[in-house]
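Translate sequence into structure tokens.
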Amino acid sequence: MKKNVAIIVSVFCALMALPVCAEEETEEKTFCATVLEIEEASILVQPNFDTEEYDNADQMYVGLDEVDDAQLEEFFDTVTVDDTVKITYNGMVMETYPAQIIALDIERLEISEMAATVAELIESEGFQIEFSKGVSEYCSEYADSLTIWPSAEEDDPEGDPDEEVNYTVTLGWISVFHYADSEMAEAVSEAFDADDPSMFGMEGESVVIDYVAPIRLYLQEECIVLYGGTNETMISLLDEELGEPFACNDY
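Result follows.
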């Protein structure tokens, strides 16, 4: 799934000296990525496929000189190859291959037991996965959340990987919302309209969530699992593992 890199870029200070960048702006940006290699003062990552950074380069060296020393020590104590990390950088990308950036902040994403279970479930069917932190759905305001993005770019179990397909709908995405306890998760589940989960009302506020695909919502102890998409294999796997959804629609 991950490609090994033959080119090793060792001097990250050159990034600060060279003026040629993919972007002129210096606004801070954040993205999620998978760790491919770990060096003494840098890591090699593959940005998530749904990010602007992946469109720029499918692999990036991340310089860590600007990260707080205490944070960096903790990061190296916990991170391993294939972990998902969240990276904040200054918006500048050096046009090499792999590309190069300087991180201002970096953290390893913690995967909840439920998210890990779901990820393992869909990986067993040949889907590749990526994690990203945080989602825009309203119920995430009450919970820690991770989104799992299935991918079929290299080994599509349900079609031609070279065909132009809207993977956001045909493969979909899975968001796992982890609440403080099962009572809170149940309260949030009751705030959704069972026949139209785009309707959400809680604490006196009602909102309409504009999903881009059909939605299925499952309640599992302190977690709510959301699947958005139309993939029959994915739906079958989740229904078998998590039971009937408490809310769903046909879009």
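Note: The CA atoms of residues 111 and 146 lie 8 Å apart.
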